[in-house]
From TrEMBL:
This is DMT family transporter. Residues 15-142, 156-293 form the EamA domain. Keywords: Membrane, Transmembrane, Transmembrane helix. The keyword Metal-binding does not apply. Belongs to the EamA transporter family. Pfam families: EamA.
Amino acid sequence: MSEKPVASPFLVWGLLITLALIWGSSFILIKKGLQVFSAGEVGAIRIVSAAVVLLPLALPKLKTLNKRQWKWLFISGMLGSFGPAFLFAFAQTRLESGVTGVLNALTPIFALLVGVMFFSGKLTKRDGIGITLGFTGTILLIVAGSGGDLGNFNYYAIFVILATLCYGFNLNIVKFQFSILTPKIITSISIFLISPIAVYYLFGMSDFVLKMQTEPGAGLGLFYISILGVVGTAIALIMFNRLVQLTSPVFTSFVTYLIPIVAVVWGLLDGEVLFTGHYIGIVFIIIGVAFANRRNK
């Protein structure tokens, strides 16, 4: 059995913090892109820009795959990239970027639940406590600021919950269907397979071209979303894979706790207002994820 390569603490902590900054900043980038583009356009731009950068990794490997792998890679692309890209954008048309970043932390909890329900995983008492805390925090975030009025509940949080559910399914699919493929191949080819849909939507069904020609600030909005696709997907993936090689899954999971902090800070700096209920919900979700991720030695 091969050992993990030896790395300095400076390198592994540097990778971890950089990943948290990149992924935690993705929600404010979506917010900036939505100032010019529709939610659908933001999602499509994100996919297309990531596909362009990952194309050199995908093309040489296409002929090495069988039909079964092609099928599951397409499903993985839809659940792990396409669906969430659009769902997060739709959510942030009515949801603060900081709150969206916190709700994103539900991904490990949904990965656990999907594994138990569909992939013969086991649920421990600690897992149950974590799930309960996580969903309690979710409810608090949804109702925070509503003043008790059901009509003011922010139902757009459901889009984020659906996105994290997609992530949960995708993580289990990757685990059980692609044991012989590397993460780089899985991500590059899965995004390559779904990119034609994004291209068709962007240039054939949206006003993207017209906005680029006539809308003030369109170039800057395109820059924000392209950075999200290129840095937040392609480059961050390579960094994440390197971190997994150098450390343990437990250490790598720390990024889940740091992303909400970065997202909330960006939101506050951009003038977003959070109520007491938001902060209580944030604490519940992070503690819940910590419980669900923790395993006995």
